[in-house]
Amino acid sequence: MKTTLARRGPHGFTIVELLITTVIMVIVGLATGAVMVDAQSSWNVMYGRLNSDVIADGYAAKAKFDAVMRGASRENIFLGDSGSWIEAYSYAGDASTAVDCYWRFYASGGDLIAEYGQLDPRKTLNVETVCRNVSAVTFRQFGYAIQMTLVLDNGKQTNTVVSSAVAHNQ
Q1: Domain-by-domain residue ranges, the chain?
Q2: Which candidate, 8, 91, 126, 169, has a CA 20 to 30 Å from the CA of 52?
Q3: What H or E segment, with its residue span, contains residue 48?
């Protein structure tokens, strides 16, 4: 015996079913959009923080300080009052047989300054601005190790850089 199903009305979705589905899809789309906008906003904030001038200045100051202090004579390092400046003597080149030049780091007008010159007779040969946005700098010495604590502040972001180097030359 063969049974057939009788059709009862037209096939398809009712308007209520379509409206419910549409509302659900709109809610899912809005939630997805809100998550994407929030993620993009957070990414922009982090990118700005990582590529700001205080971060770049901190890297530049650390690199310069490390390079100079590693080449300095460990016997001739002088600190200013309360560590406000540091002066280190070094060899001008590979052919030098005696300590014959100096490097001096200090803060002036919101900049970290590196001054370079010859010792005898004392003469400044170059003054270089290493970084800007300096709000504080302190130098300390622990044996042959020299430490610089540098605080950079551009009004929006503050970055503290602590750099240590060991003077290798005698």
Answers
A1: 13-51, 53-166
A2: 126
A3: helix 15-50
